[in-house]
Amino acid sequence: MNDILLDGIKIKGYRSFKEEVTFDNLSKINLIIGQNNSGKSNLLRFLSRHYLSLNSSKGVPFSDLDDVPKHKDNVRLELGVKVEKNTDLSRELVAETHYETLNNTIFRTNECVWFYFSRAGNSLEQSSVDIERTTEGMKPIEDREWYSLWTRISNMTGGSIKNWRPESIQRLNVASRLKTKVDIIPAIRSLKPFQDNNLSLQSDGRVFKDGIGEHSGIHLIEELFKLQNPPNGKERDRDRFDKINNFMKEIVSNETLQLVIPYDKKTVIVEMDDKRLPIESLGSGIEEVLIIAAKSTMFSKQIVCIEEPELHLHPTLQRKLIRYLHEKTDNQYFIATHSAHLLDATECSIYHVQLVDGYSKVVCAVNDLGKFQACSDLGYKASDLLQSNFIIWVEGPSDRIYLNHWIKSVNPELVEGLHYSIMFYGGRLLSHLTTSDSETVEEFIQLQKLNQNTAILIDSDRKKPKQHINNTKKRVQSEFEDREQLCWVTEGREIENYISQDVYDAAMKEIYGTKVKLPTQDKYECMTKFVVNKEEKKIDKIRLAHQVSEIGADLDVLDLKKKISELVKAIESANLLNV
């Protein structure tokens, strides 16, 4: 069994979801990201409170005041549940002996089927399946295929398409197959009891809040004690305890760590480096990460909703936690978060929730631009994802020296390392690769994905007019421009062709003396070689760059002023300096 228990879900008419919102292509880890009051927690609320009402009485009834407010357009609450071909859930739709028939009929033309339900009274029920909308959303299958499917799953013959289609959908109804549990770990978490008048303690020790299981950490110590000391026949419980313990070793980077639940069960003792400390002495972040990891390890093969796991956690701990959930547990997770640090922690699906005209809109951030827009909506600058708000990719160290010199001449307030960073890709990479080197080219293109606020400087290497840049550089240029990122291809042959003749001559003579024969500045001339004593030599590009920087900047060469102005404007924009 894989860990994807829910393939996709659509919700309409629930709380801030006035119009239909879609959470498709769900993964094991699903991040719901958005600003405060954007509605990002409403999916978690729906799953934990109402999802199971489709096939049982366990769901919490809808509240007309809170859950289904009266929209002025009288919007009806609707739900869509996705079933993909060849998944565990699709195999649950029919008996094993009939699955081939299902694949040869409905799933012959459909990679997935969306089953739709409408509100029935104060809940959702199996009988509330919307047969018409479910079939309308499917790609057509022939009448004889409907008949073949209907006869197999109903053990009847005769009839017509008028009953084959609706009765087949009713019998396939995914609602009756939804057996997975759903639990929620709330944003307020503590191992110590805290005041909450809505909490109720059951006789079996379970805690409930508003009719659903509560997993904030209350009574977790007792649960850990049972895992630490399992009775005969439940030795696997100890394996779970050891898994939690090993994770905490990684969290604190100490292999000597050992969790111990004492006999009085009043706290969790952390033993390490020959010391015994109550877990609260290590800080609230360690306590909270233990609560989330422990409960997620105790759960098995179910849906787990987590609210704001980043609270009190350093970004490194956030990433470690998400990787643990992905690699060491067998649940499917829906996580509401404000944290951009989780976006690249592991493979996951990301859904960006925004409040537009009072109602929530949801976009699946399937690409890096979508991730960046989600981060921007949270108020993050790119420096929260990397160490700089703006990244400039250049060939090598001499390019960095020139760019810093020219940037300072336009805006002296911009500081490398604060407002922008310069990174090197190495000129040989773009100069000598061919399109057959697709893997290496693709790896290079991934560089820009580190930060949406990115620019790249590329030597054209043109030796004559109308000469085109090579295919690799064209590919990189296209990728940057498609993302609306600045790709600066030099108008001249190389960056040294942006140095005016007077500045070039003065700098070269300062370095090599006056008895040298220097090239005449031209956009296609090689300016990195010179002649001394009738012998051609290569210049020290870094020494030349430093020397040029000692002289006042002359930007009136080729398109230098235009390009450096565009670059400075982009840096200022990324740093919110021009708003």
What's this, in brief?
With 579 residues, the chain is of the alpha/beta class. Helix content is 34%, strand content 17%. The protein has three domains: 144 residues, no CATH class; 86 residues, no CATH class; 199 residues, no CATH class.
Report on this model:
By secondary structure, the protein is an alpha/beta fold. The protein has three domains: 144 residues, no CATH class; 86 residues, no CATH class; 199 residues, no CATH class. The protein is 34% helix and 17% strand. The strands form six sheets. A six-stranded mixed beta sheet has the order 6-13-14-3-15-16, sandwiched between helices. Helix 8 packs across helix 9, helix 9 runs antiparallel to helix 11 and helix 17 packs across helix 18. The protein starts with 7 loop residues before the first strand and ends in a 5-residue tail after the last helix. About 2% of the residues have low confidence.
Unreliable stretches covering 5 or more consecutive residues: 382-387, 432-437
Strand tally is: 22
Biggest beta sheet summary: 6 strands, mixed
Number of domains: 3
Question: Which structural category fits the helices and strands?
Answer: alpha/beta
End-to-end C-alpha gap? 52 Å
Approximate helicity band: 25-40%
Q: How many separate helices? A: 19
Mean pLDDT: 82
Strand content: 15-25%
Regarding quaternary structure, what we see is single chain
Specify Rg, calculated over alpha carbons: 31 Å
Strand order across the largest sheet: 6-13-14-3-15-16
Overall morphology:
globular
What's the layout of helices and strands?
Layout: E1 8-12, E2 21-23, E3 29-34, H1 42-49, E4 78-84, H2 88-92, H3 99-104, H4 106-109, E5 112-118, H5 131-136, H6 143-154, H7 161-172, E6 182-185, E7 199-201, E8 207-209, E9 212-213, H8 220-228, H9 235-252, E10 258-260, E11 269-272, E12 275-278, H10 284-298, E13 303-307, H11 315-328, E14 332-337, E15 349-356, E16 359-364, H12 368-377, E17 391-394, H13 397-410, E18 421-424, H14 427-432, H15 438-445, E19 454-458, H16 471-482, E20 486-489, H17 501-512, E21 529-532, E22 535-538, H18 541-549, H19 560-574
Parallel strand pairs: 3-14, 3-15, 6-13, 13-14, 17-18, 17-19, 19-20
Antiparallel strand pairs: 1-2, 1-4, 4-5, 7-8, 8-9, 10-11, 11-12, 15-16, 21-22
Helix pairs in contact: 6-7, 8-9, 9-10, 9-11, 10-11, 13-18, 13-19, 17-18
